[in-house]
Write a structure and sequence with these properties.
This protein is an alpha/beta fold. About 45% of the residues lie in helices and about 15% in strands. Strand 7, helix 9 and strand 8 form a beta-alpha-beta unit. Helix 1 packs antiparallel against helix 2 and helix 3 runs antiparallel to helix 4.
């Protein structure tokens, strides 16, 4: 019963949003014929594109890609239009309250002019914000440099370069060309360790193996490591785990590896993995079992909320993703309701945590206020 209920809610919500936009951008502006008809037809087509996207998302990539480019781009644009139009409505409420207080006679022509001006402003804001978001998401991913000091790393130890990517979301709109560029740029950094902290894919191995293939060319002195994110479990986690191992990527499933550079790298399954059955589920105790407690451990855990268990075990550094830094403002405020940390470097008790903003994007090909990143983390002994 859950699917029909979800479908009914989705259809109702999409219909209401597009009807609301039609009333404010077409009806209330009294567009002349044939512009009013064209506006209504365009909004209807774009509403249908969202339904088509929902159906295509799990279909073959060749079919899903063009449909989702239209649907996802419109989804991002409709979000910004909705915010702009709702803000304009609040302004109109204020204007009408002021007119009522001043007992100003209602002037239909003035109200129509105000409605048209606010509608035009909403369109400019909506397209401007979505355009800026697309420019950010589709531009060259920046390399963010970070220095982290670990007190448990012996004095005189050589710096360790960890390059982290997260939330790449290889799928209908992110493919092989993007991955090849990311791999080339990581290799150019000559990392000691590469850490991939989950949500690498959005689709099956059968559909995306060709696009993930460049990951097999990643080079790191002490290895390339991966932990699952929640999206791996929507995409066939067991198949992807086997496939990545075949590409030479070390998948850490509640286990650790002692590296000759003086650190241990541990990894746990995604926070939600247990609900997918089998032997999946995070187990930090198992991941740390049998290691030398005198060595600093770097924990790879997709979701920042794993920090509470990591701090209890005095993990030196946790690397996470999942949040995308909010991806599109103002979603950063909503993410904070679900995760304790959003993006950047934090200290939680005695444990340091770095949360990546992500390397790709999910859904709309837009990022606003949260640019994508490849993170170059230079780990040093504490200077104090």
């Amino acid at each position: 019963m859950r699917y029909p209920v979800f479908l009914a809610v989705f259809v109702a919500l999409v219909g209401l949003v597009h009807y609301y936009l039609w009333t404010r951008l077409v009806r209330d502006t009294a567009l002349p014929h044939p512009w009013s008809v064209a506006g209504g037809a365009l909004l209807s087509f774009l509403a249908v594109s969202l339904f088509a996207s929902a159906l295509a998302i799990r279909g073959p990539r060749a079919i899903a890609t063009p449909v989702l480019w239209v649907g996802y781009t419109w989804l991002g644009l409709v979000f910004f239009l909705l915010l702009a139009v709702a803000s304009a409505d609040l302004l109109k409420v204020g204007v009408r309250a002021y007119e009522a207080m001043r007992a100003t006679p209602v002037d239909p022509d003035r109200r129509l002019a105000l409605g048209r001006m606010l509608a035009a402003g909403s369109v400019v804001v909506g397209f401007g914000a979505s355009g800026a978001g697309m420019a950010s998401a589709l531009s060259r991913v920046e390399v963010k440099k970070l220095k982290v000091e670990l007190a448990s790393l012996g004095r005189g130890a050589a710096p360790i370069k960890i390059v982290q990517i997260s939330d790449v979301h290889i799928g209908p709109t992110i493919g092989r060309d993007f991955i090849e560029e990311i791999v080339d740029r990581i290799n150019a950094l000559s990392p000691d360790v590469v850490a991939i902290t989950g949500d690498l894919v959005d689709g099956t191995v059968a559909d995306l193996a060709e696009h993930a293939a460049p990951l097999g060319k990643l080079k790191a002195k002490h290895g390339v490591f991966f932990v699952t994110g929640n999206h791996e479990y929507y995409s066939g986690a067991d198949d992807w785990i086997a496939h990545l191992r075949g590409l030479g990527v070390r998948v850490l499933r509640n286990e650790h590896v002692s590296l000759p550079c003086g650190i241990d790298v541990a990894g746990v399954d995604d926070w939600t993995a247990k609900q997918f059955g089998g032997d999946h589920g995070p187990d930090l105790d198992k991941a740390l079992r049998g290691r030398d407690a005198a060595r600093p451990v770097v924990l790879l855990a997709h979701q920042p909320k794993a920090i509470f268990g990591a701090a209890a075990k005095e993990v030196a550094l946790q690397l996470s993703g999942h949040t995308h830094g909010g991806q599109i403002f103002p979603f950063n405020f909503l993410v904070r309701l679900q995760q304790p940390y959003l993006a950047g470097l934090y200290t939680h008790e005695k444990t340091q945590l770095y949360v990546s903003r992500g390397t790709g994007y999910w859904g709309p090909p837009m990022r606003l206020g949260a640019p994508a990143e490849i993170t170059e983390i230079d780990v040093h002994p504490a200077s104090g």
